[in-house]
Amino acid sequence: MSDNNMMTEAMAGRVIKYGDNVDTDVIIPARYLNTSDMAELAKHCMEDLDKDFTDKVRPGDIMVAGKNFGSGSSREHAPAVIKASGISCIIAETFARIFYRNAINIGLPIMESPEAVRDIDDGDKVSVDIGRGVITNSTKGKTYQATPYPGFMHDIMETGGLINYLKDKGEQL
Amino acid sequence: MGMTMTQKILAAHAGLEKVEAGQLIMADLDLVLGNDITSPVAINEFRKIGVKDVFDRNKVAIVPDHFTPNKDIKSAEQCKFIRKFAHDKEIVNYFEIGEMGIEHALIPEKGLVVSGDVVIGADSHTCTYGALGAFSTGVGSTDMAAGMASGKAWFKVPEAIKITLVGSLPKWVSGKDVILHIIGMIGVDGALYQSMEYSGPGLAALSMDDRFTIANMAIEAGAKNGIFEVDDKTIAYIKEHSTKEFTVFKADEDAEYSREIEVNLSSLRPTVAFPHLPDNTRTIDEAGDVPIHQVVIGSCTNGRIGDLRAAAEILKGHKVKKGVRVIIFPATQKIYLQAMREGLLEIFVEAGAAVSTPTCGPCLGGHMGVLASGERAVATTNRNFVGRMGHPKSEVYLASPQVAAASAITGKISSPGEVV
Question: Which domains does chain A have, with CATH numbers?
Answer without folding.
Answer: 10-168 (3.20.19.10)
